[in-house]
Amino acid sequence: MSKHIQAIRGMHDILPERIGIWHRIEDTARAVLASYGYAEIRTPLVEVTELFKRSIGEVTDIVEKEMYSFPDRNGDSLSLRPECTASCVRAAIERGLLAQPQRLWYRGPMFRYERPQRGRYRQFHQIGVEAFGLAGPDIDLEVILLTARLWRRLGLSGFRLELNSLGDPTERQVYRERLVVYLQRHLDQLDADSQRRLVSNPLRVLDSKHPETQRIVADAPSLLDCLGIETRTHFEHIRAGLDEAGVAYQINPRLVRGLDYYNRTVFEWITDALGAQGTVCAGGRYDGLVEQLGGRATPAVGCAMGLERLVELMEQGGFTPASTLDAYLVAVGEPAQAAAPMLAERLRDALPTLRLVVHCGGGSFKSQFKKADKSGARFALILGSEELARERIGLKHLREDAEQSELSLAELADFLDANLAHA
Ligand code: ATP
Ligand code: MG
User: Which atom of ligand 1 is nearest the CA belonging to 309?
Assistant: First the structure.
């Protein structure tokens, strides 16, 4: 026998039994984002590798070791997208979307060659937003508030909002020099990656997950001390807005984020309920990126949330998706079996939102009924030769005690209409 082919490590099937949670998250996000005037954009899963190198940064985990890059048949280097901000910026420039402010959102799979573990996969899914052309703190605030609203709508609580300002490039340069002086004094205590980054990208040392390095970093000078008045004011406006909205946050001066393109605001929503991979959403401002990728200088802010982590939280919270079926049509005997599909078509004509399965493949009443029960449907519709002769359909409640009844097609349509779980 040939060996079964298996899915790629770290890439998962999302099975029907769990899809209800995904739909709940996606539908809720879509509704919340629409309520803020964000429009969905869909970009290709594959882009030229250069796009990610130039945006995310050469000296980042993603570009150094996590990208799925491969030569196209013509020799161009392509990559599966590891995130979608770069793609959105590319599309916005290429399609001329930046003449006026844009509020965009996206969803879909991202790919990173990481060590698979709980909350960390090689194909994972994000929903993210990107707002272009707005420089003021009001839009940073909006992005944070809409994520807070989404958590509320999903019934998720207990998230911690961490906030920091990375300053503007000149302020960061001043800080960078201070940081390097400090870290050089502790060079031999840093992990190898951090030692290397001390030269190439010292701020990323703050982001290190290495315990020894984290100890050194805890006493490093703070970026917030290097901010000028404009950056400070911008940051204070966001803080004041969060206070007014009643959204609690903590300032974390070590929060630098894993991508190079951020400036000023950065934030993360973190939970303790997921073990080591507790960040469910992360984002910030990236005013330099559009220009860096060849567009006209355009301020921008955005964030992305990891859907697998949200799904796990919803499951932990006991969220059980409603049944996906209203009714299961049981048809016993040749004539009833032959009539069943057309009966179902007429019901669907009358009730466009009805979710109805027609039993296929025949079998005894008992065996069909078992399947009806297992299907999760609320009602079994029963068509046998007697019902057929009387032009009526049997109706049985599968989830509650109630008399079985017999209805005409019109009566049945009325009954189902009044009893559908959804609008
Ligand atoms: P980390 O420091 O944990 O690697 P990151 O900075 O790489 O996170 P982002 O690129 O900002 O993460 O992605 C935003 C969100 O997407 C994360 O907060 C997380 O919820 C989710 N995410 C990122 N990488 C993965 C992954 N490999 N598997 C599942 N979810 C992920
Ligand atoms: Mg990462």
Answer: 20
Task: Report whether residue 112 contacts ligand 1, using a CB cutoff of 6 Å.
Answer: yes
Cα–Cα distance for residue pair 193/213, rounded to 1 Å: 10
Question: In this predicted model, what pLDDT tens digit does every residue of 29-73 receive, in sequence order?
Answer: 999 999 999 999 999 999 999 999 999 988 788 998 999 999 999
CA gap 258, 132 in Å, rounded: 21
Residue nearest to atom 7 of ligand 1 (CA): 258
Residue nearest to atom 26 of ligand 1 (CA): 120
pLDDT digits (tens, 9 = 90+) for 114-172: 999 999 999 999 999 999 999 999 999 999 999 999 999 999 999 999 999 999 989 98
Task: Tell me the ligand closest to 119's alpha carbon.
Answer: 1
pLDDT in tens, 190-245: 999 899 988 888 988 988 889 999 999 999 999 999 999 999 999 999 999 999 99
User: Quick count: other Cβ atoms within 10 Å of Cβ 19?
Assistant: 13
> What is the C-alpha separation between 292 and 261, in angstroms, rounded?
9
- Determine if ligand 1 sits within 6 Å of the CB of residue 126: yes
Task: Report DSSP state, residue 224.
Answer: G
Angstrom distances, CA of residue 357 to CA of 110, 185, 327, 349: 34, 70, 6, 14
pLDDT in tens, 264-297: 999 999 999 999 899 999 999 999 999 999 999 9
**Ligand at shortest distance from the CA of 259:** 1
Q: Describe the chain by its helix, strand, coil percentages, rounded to 5.
A: 45, 20, 35
What is the position in ligand 1's atom list of the atom closest to the CA of 122? 27
Nearest to 59, CA basis, from 242, 219, 193, 213 = 193
Please tell me the distance from the alpha carbon of residue 244 to that of residue 274, in angstroms, as a whole number. Answer: 29
Q: What is the dihedral of CA 415, 418, 422, 423, to 10 degrees?
A: 120
pTM of structure: 0.92
Return the pLDDT at 294. Answer: 96
Q: Which of 81, 115, 277 to mutate to test the pocket of ligand 1 (most atoms within 8 A of CB)?
A: 277
